[in-house]
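Exercise 3.2. Students should predict the tertiary structure of the chain below and write it as structure tokens, then compare their answer with the key that follows.

Predict this chain's 3D structure.
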Amino acid sequence: MNNMDVRKAARFLPVIVCAICLEAAVTSGAVFAALQPMVRLKDLATVEGVRDNQLVGMGLVVGLQGTGDKGRMANQMMANMTDQFGVVMDPRQLNSKNAAVVTVTCQLSPFLQPGQNTDVLVSTIGDAKSLEGGVLLQTPLKAANGEIYAVAQGPLTIGGWADSGAASSVKKNVVTVGRIPNGAIVERGVDMRYASNGTVNLLLRQSDFTTASRVATAINSKFGNVAHAVDGRMISVAIPPNYRNAPSAFVASIEGVQVRPDAAAKVVVNERTGTIVMGGNVTIGNTSVAHGSLMVKVTESPEISQPGPFSGGTTAAAPRTDVYAQENSPQLVELPTTSTVEDLTNAMNAVGASPRDLIAVLQAMGEAGALHGELVIQ
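Answer key:
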């Protein structure tokens, strides 16, 4: 395709890609290595068995200034609570807007022991307008197995405010959600078995066989032949004899091991927002990109026909259409075989292409086989 053909094609399509993959991009391992820094193993993997646990409960927030629930659920909970203290009340007789039914959630961190504290998040369930100034009454927090692991109580901290009058209201941030720092007391700990049978299993946050192999090699270079990659996610590490009585010290020592992770060449495109995220190791073949634009503007401006006096005619609208077309001169961008997606981005920006134009270019390159990497479209 010569330049004249490219110019003709550019009159009809905003972006046309003519890609001929002449040869595979040859890039040395040193170039790819420079794209990935050395990272601590602590930032690449987690220890199997060491995890958070979610707790949830349903409670009652009191002390609100008329911004509580209006429904029957809050009245029923207040009646149940007064009944526990020997005061029997009919829920229909309770008419208070100073209480709200809420859900209480928290993350039970690993190794928390009974008597220690953790933060809780409180959110309204009903139609309460604000939790400002409220106090959460004692609420048991349960895990998925139905057992109680913590109890929450205390005044709420709201990250906003709300004021209202007879005809208008104003508020800042969300006032129906609050936090209680250290508001939950742990009543039962969770046993974290991370060194069973003298083995510690490491789980990569991003599955990759090459990275798993590198992690095992880095650990073996420091502690001997104790680690092997089970698959692309798990690395099994045998605890050395001198660490058998102190597995936590061994985990702390391997967390500081430096590893250079590997990543597949990917280009992630979000067409809804026009966002493009490209890995540095993505390369493209020999490519020519023709970029041009055609703008067509159609305007309707009907004319009104007014009959003469005493003619007996009627007023009518005569249609009138104005068509305006403007074509910008197309620009041709040529990229060599060893170019990267960064080079393509810089070239397209130089000719004034928008992010959506670049998305169309990348999609066409993927179909033509000139994009050496995985194209992920969200």
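Discussion points: Confidence is low (pLDDT under 50) at residues 1-32. Helices lie at 3-9, 29-35, 72-84, 209-223, 247-255, 341-350, 355-368.
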